[in-house]
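Closing statement on the alpha-L-fucopyranose sub-project.
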Amino acid sequence: MKKIWMLGCLLMVTRLLAAQTNAQPLIIWDNRPATDWMTQAYPIGNGSLGAMVFGGVDRERLQFNESSLWTGDEQETGAYQAFGDIWINLDDSATAFTNYKRELDLNTALAKVRYEKTGTRFTRTYWASHPQQVITVNFTASKKGAYSGEIRLTDMHQAAVSAAGKGLQVAGALNNGLQYAVRLQVKHTGGSVQLLQKDGVPVIRINKADGFTLLLAAATNYSNQRSQGWRGADPLPVVRKRLDDAANETIARLQQNHVKDYQSWFNRAFLQLGGVATAANKLPTRERILQYKAGIDAGLETLLFQYGRYLLISSSRLGGLPANLQGIWNDSNNPPWRSDYHSNINIQMNYWPALPTNLPVMHQPYLDYINSMREVKKANTQKQYPGVRGWTVKTENNIFGGESFLWNTPGSAWYAQALWEHYAFLQDTSYLLHFAYPVLKEITEFWDDHLKRRPDGTVVAPNGWSPEHGPHEDGVSHDQQIVHDLFTNYTEAAAVLQLDMAYARHISDLKSRLLAPKIGKWGQLQEWETDRDDPEDQHRHVSHLFGLHPGRQFTVTHTPELIAAAKKSLLARGDASTGWSMAWKMNFWARLQDGDHAYKILNNFIRLAGSGNVNYDNGGGVYENLLCAHPPFQIDGNLGYTAGIAEMLLQSHAGEIQVLPALPAAWGEGTVKGFKARGGFEVVELSWKQGHITKLVLRSESGKLLNLLLPDSLKGNLPLRREDAGYRVTTPTRVGQLLSWGR
Ligand code: FUC
């Protein structure tokens, strides 16, 4: 069974490799080295192995991570750990450098540092290769013999560094028994390389090399196969083999393989907003953020959009763990919120852009994670709610199933949405049957058992908490809406598969009795059953609008009264906020189909945040390296921003595809390629000028019925049928069929 859907997965991968071209420059850059990890260094990653690049001229530092280096176990949450650092000290620190540039190119996933010293040009190129599973740093110079210096490796858990062949190695274990290993090797041209002992520690000494390359591999014995009790193979032989394989390739080939692999994902979605890239590109990113003005630097808005996709590709790969609060990048053994998996918005938001922006394979680690948790979570749930079927989760989660903080009962139902969405976008029935449905069903069973039936016939989620404020009580709107979403997804899945029809009818009946959303005394959508919403409340969580986004209970087309109430609530909550909260608000305003308001939040998001401390008082924004400042850095904001832009330009949650549903006036013209819509459709091209669509080409990937709605203002010269809501096309399609309108 599992094999069939794995095959489906592979076919999907191959089919999806058809690339778009990203012609525009997408570069984050600076004219000085980084001194601060969180706000300045640049992230590179291959899904599990990652590093932050500082780019110091004489003192280079690469702080590296591996996604499974975690303390904790099935009970204790523990924390995601920093792995170690590579330090490169070059001898010639007395000579001044000029023409320094440090960049991260999103088109190639290569970081680069360039500078000059007394006429010699020095270049470094950094990448984290997925095909090779190594981090590579290549040092070249325009003059022979230009490099002399020392390279050290340090471990964040103080295990001893030993010499290994021509390189350095650490093999250690955490207090939970998790084994880890890292190996660093150097290849060089010209001059010589030797291993020395310095202060009792082995270091690599480089003497007058023309150039050299560092190769680093790191792994742990973590396995997400529950049958092995989380403990897999000894990581040291794995790491050794990866390094040997990489060392046998030429550097040019290593780089080519990396760029090709990365682009096979990245190039699948293209976005250009507001005409051709602006001159702002010529400014270091830090200054560009400071000078950012809405309506002028659409290039920066696009850069941030693509950065979200870059970060997801770099932190979420098939077979690996999902992106945590900081993706995979973390320099501390005691990071904020453990750099964990928070189930009350954060991990979910990480995956919002994956399907709409054509990265379905990057979505899979999240689904695999959910799947791998089931047995542990069932056991934990039994302890809390004896006798129920299925499972749910607490708010803070690790990679072993251990969890902490409060029971976040709707957490599992929110996870279930991702399982359904993967089907909704890709229409892969084999995946739905073999992978998603069993999980959807057991989560549905939990709620079937857990819900409270009241004497008046209404059904409520008991003892909930609207994250993260207000009383603990029954029927909290957030819980009601998430359960509503789960039941919708479950019954639709059962209908597609024609399975468990009697049970699906029972769930459908239960859904119809769920305490319904209420409109309160100031016209707001009530956050609780009691009409107690405070119009002054500006809490960052806006959880009672789940049904608007990412749910689909409230839609402009089908529930205009609830939409009006949701708008009231959102206006009261205000625009200023912290990182992920702003990103969520962009998505809300997109779903309210108010493009100008979504754009206003987007403008607030592009604001240089100074401090890396946990401090919400001054609101969120982005750092110089464009990582989202909650603050501190949390990757959810970056990924939610990307999803927000996708949501402004294409929607498909209401049973129809809506093109440019929330286009702000500032984006008078633009082009989108490769975005995906539910029902199995891809935008081959969508172009607009002066707010009017000039070209729309869709490809049917599923052969399903196309139900397309275009607003009046965008009718242009398209042959469409007029309806109240706009212009509609309803037509059967064939797999692979292109449907086009306009010039
Ligand atoms: C939730 C939020 C916090 C933070 C944390 C990781 O609890 O309320 O703001 O994002 O997750």
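The two ends are 46 Å apart (CA to CA). With this model delivered, the sub-project is considered complete and its resources will be redirected to Aim 3.
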